[in-house]
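Priority: low. Protein: Ion_trans domain-containing protein. Input follows.
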Amino acid sequence: MVMLKTGTSVVKIVLELMVNAMVLGFASIRILELLFVPTSHSV
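Result:
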């Protein structure tokens, strides 16, 4: 039972880290677009 609990907790932690990484990636891409699109249009 302890092994199953630790296994599920590890899976939950890994899934949460993956979701956080995806959210951070999308946010950074959006910020880069907001930063670089106006400069490219002005040029």
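The radius of gyration is 19 Å. The helical segments are 2-42.
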